[in-house]
Amino acid sequence: MTVPRSGVPASRRPRLTLPGLREVYEAYARAAEELPALPGALQAEVWTSAQLGALESAAPHAEGRRAALGDLITTLRAAGTPGAHTFLRVLAAIGPAGARRAAHRAAGELDGLPEPPWAGALGAVTPGQVWLIQEGPLDGDRLVCEFRYEGGAELHAVAVRLSYGDAPREVVVVGDVRALMAAARQAMQAELCVVQPYDPAAVGARLRAALDGAETFPEDCYPALALARHRVALLPGA
């Protein structure tokens, strides 16, 4: 019996829609063993978002992205490791909406494997304050949306910079929100930018249109894209 590098016997390797990418999916499954050792749900979501961003940036079109994501879920289920199970749990929580149910079912088939203590917190966040930062007419708007996990833990933010026409130029996850806002207020005092609260419902509609409507993004946007879409979907005004 041949055992590939993924650890899955060749006879049990799943049938895939895009079999030419099997080694890519198996590399994701191996890398997933890093996940259970991460310190918290936010770090796991950031890690998973980066993997999904790499997959999306390489896909030629939406149909290809859906097929690749389905294959990834199938491969993780076949791998059957604690890391693969955790990866599926994160996908079910913050992955693309069309894939969450499949990821949830696949994770359920692996129930009984050990999982990290933060697994129950995945995706369970509440929106907070939203800020508009404007650094100049040529720099566009930077929208900073704060979130916390249940009980007010782990304050973080999604920051999206939009250019003219609301095309996304930058998407990042901010771990130290207080430091970011302190720096922004110092810049405002020096008259380098404007910082003001923004209506969450207006921002939600604006960012959902920007992040869901574009076919392609600047390369640096992709790592935070999946997490940003999940968070933005929680803002009011949907």
Give an overview of the whole structure:
- Helix content is 46%, strand content 17%.
- Strand 2 (141-149) and strand 3 form a beta hairpin.
- Helix 2 (41-58) crosses helix 8 (222-233).
- The chain has 2 domains: 10-120, no CATH class; 124-233.
- The chain has helices spanning 22-31, 41-58, 62-79, 82-94, 97-108, 177-189, 200-213, 222-233, and strands at residues 125-134, 141-149, 153-162, 168-174, 194-197.
- Residues 1-7 have low confidence and may be disordered.
- The chain starts with 21 loop residues before the first helix and ends in a 5-residue tail after the last helix.
Describe the main β-sheet briefly: 5 strands, antiparallel
Order of the strands making up the biggest sheet: 4-3-2-1-5
Which percent band covers the strand fraction? 15-25%
Please bin the fraction of helical residues: 40-55%
Number of strands: 5
Q: What average pLDDT do the residues reach?
A: 90
- Structural class, by secondary structure, is alpha+beta
Uncertain spans, ≥5 residues at pLDDT below 50? 1-7
Distance between the termini: 52 Å
User: What's the helix-strand series?
Assistant: HHHHHEEEEHEHH
Number of helices: 8
Give me the Rg, rounded: 19 Å
Q: What would the principal axes of the Cα set say about the shape? A: globular
Number of domains in the coordinates? 2
